[in-house]
């Protein structure tokens, strides 16, 4: 009895001590993180707003946030040196900073997440013509040694997002085949049978790593693709302690202030066709409110950065465009948005059709083989 009591007391004591220790560890980590992030934020170069920031310099760096306008690109004829990449702002550490102008385009974060999801599936689904992942890997190896060029699959963030989605598509297809094509439920259009649902996608650790708040991180130079070594610890801290996101946001806003040009994908919507707008709006209605709210809360920094860009830049940017055109006739801003108006509904239908088609094709081939 006595012993039991003692034991219990001991356990309670131990438990107390343990939780104290872990609480203080958490606190220490927070303090450490706050210092790290603070130090990074205040030592970030390029935070003074430059005069003459709107003068076009020798080199133009288009910081291309993925899915801010599919075909957006600036192209240069002679004399103007242009760099278009999904690299983050840390790329500037490799460029002559004084001679470089930076431009970017931001998009409503919710639409950007949708578009990232759609594009991941679209690219990954192309591999479904293969019978299995082994065969995909073999072909990829062969192609790489043949062309040596850069494909979507070599580029961050697609080099992570596409293989992830591809594995998932194959796993779902295998599961369908295991269940047998005919004993399947009547609900043959059940999306979960064929592709990862949106809510699952946005909550995966990979999405947290590279999609959410992606614009803010890219402009701050804090993606997990950053060239700067210390960026990775800052990033870990910000992902762990949400309140530290404020520091990152401030850096990103100042960077925007210093850019030569900040465009908004949505500003070009006016020029998109009426049809696309109507269908797009309806497709949006199909996404449950809960999921929309979740996307917003996972992208709090991007939401705020986007609001900031909307209020600071939308008025400026038309005038800037005109000014730019006068300054440098060689730079063309192509209208990129005709293709950007893809929407959920059409997309969903086309994916289902594609999968069904591939399913039929594979089956048919097997049947043919049997006959032969
Ligand atoms: C993958 O597909 C190839 C080509 O059809 C086949 O030879 C191979 O045995 C398959 N591998 C597995 C693990 O199923
Ligand atoms: C499919 O629907 C038919 C008729 O509505 C029903 O009799 C059958 O049990 C259903 N099969 C499955 C697997 O749900
Ligand atoms: C970046 O994120 C991806 C996806 O989560 C991960 O696989 C990769 O290892 C990360 N890269 C670095 C340098 O942390």
TrEMBL record:
Molecular function as annotated in GO: heparan sulfate 6-sulfotransferase activity
Main location: membrane
Keyword presence, Phosphoprotein: no
Domain of life: Eukaryota
Signal peptide feature range: 1-23
Record's bilayer topology term: Single-pass membrane protein
Residues annotated as transmembrane: 344-362
Compartments, as annotated in UniProt: Membrane
One Gene Ontology term, aspect cellular component: membrane
Key words, A-Z: Glycoprotein, Membrane, Signal, Transferase, Transmembrane, Transmembrane helix
Protein name listed in UniProt: Sulfotransferase
Organism of this sequence: Rhododendron griersonianum
Lineage: Eukaryota, Viridiplantae, Streptophyta, Embryophyta, Tracheophyta
């Amino acid at each position: 009895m006595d012993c039991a009591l003692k034991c219990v007391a001991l356990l309670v004591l131990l438990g107390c001590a343990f939780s104290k220790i872990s609480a203080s560890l958490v606190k220490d980590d927070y303090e450490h993180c706050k210092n790290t992030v603070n130090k990074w934020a205040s030592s970030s170069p390029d935070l003074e707003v430059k005069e003459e920031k709107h003068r076009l310099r020798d080199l133009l760096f288009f910081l291309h946030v993925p899915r801010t306008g599919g075909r957006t690109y600036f192209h240069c004829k002679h004399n103007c040196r242009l760099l278009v990449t999904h690299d983050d702002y840390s790329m500037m550490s490799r460029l002559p900073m004084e001679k470089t102008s930076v431009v970017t385009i931001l998009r409503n974060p919710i639409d950007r997440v949708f578009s990232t999801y759609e594009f991941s599936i679209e690219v990954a689904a192309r591999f479904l013509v293969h019978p299995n992942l082994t065969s995909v890997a073999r072909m990829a190896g062969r192609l790489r040694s043949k062309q040596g060029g850069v494909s979507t699959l070599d580029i961050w963030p697609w080099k992570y997002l596409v293989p992830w989605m591809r594995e998932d598509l194959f796993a779902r297809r295998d599961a369908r085949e295991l269940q047998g094509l005919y004993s399947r439920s009547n609900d043959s259009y059940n999306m979960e049978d064929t592709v990862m649902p949106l809510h699952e996608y946005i909550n995966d650790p990979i999405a947290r790593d590279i999609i959410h708040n992606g614009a803010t991180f890219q402009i701050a130079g804090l993606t997990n693709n950053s060239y700067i070594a210390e960026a990775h610890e800052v990033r870990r801290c910000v992902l762990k302690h949400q309140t530290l996101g404020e520091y990152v946001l401030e850096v990103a806003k100042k960077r925007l202030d210093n850019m030569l040009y900040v465009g908004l994908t949505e500003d070009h919507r006016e020029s998109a066709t009426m049809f696309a707008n109507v269908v797009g709006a309806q497709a949006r209605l199909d996404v449950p409110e809960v999921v929309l709210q979740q996307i917003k809360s996972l992208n709090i920094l991007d939401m705020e950065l986007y609001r900031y860009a909307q209020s600071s830049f939308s008025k400026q940017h038309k005038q800037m465009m005109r000014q730019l055109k006068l300054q440098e006739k060689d730079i063309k801003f192509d209208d990129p948005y005709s293709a950007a108006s893809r929407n959920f509904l059409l997309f969903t239908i086309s994916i289902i059709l594609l999968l069904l088609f591939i399913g039929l094709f594979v089956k048919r081939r097997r049947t043919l083989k049997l006959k032969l």
